[in-house]
Amino acid sequence: MASPCKPETKERGEQGGGFLEKVKDFIHDIGEKIEEAVGFGKPTADVTTIQIASIDLKTAELVADVLVKNPNPIPIPLVDIKYLIESNDRKLVHGLIPDAGTIHAHGSETIKIPLTITYDDIKETYDDIEPGTVIPYKVRVELITNVPVIGKITLPIEKQGEMPIPYKPDVDLVKIKFNDFSFEETSATLCLKFDNKNEFDLGLNALDYEVWLADVSIGSAKLAKLAKIEKKGQGVIEIPISFRPKDFGSALWDVIRGKGTGYSMKGNIDVDTIFGPMKLPFSREGGSTKLKKADDNDDED
Question: Which residue windows are coiled coil (predicted)?
Answer without folding.
Answer: none
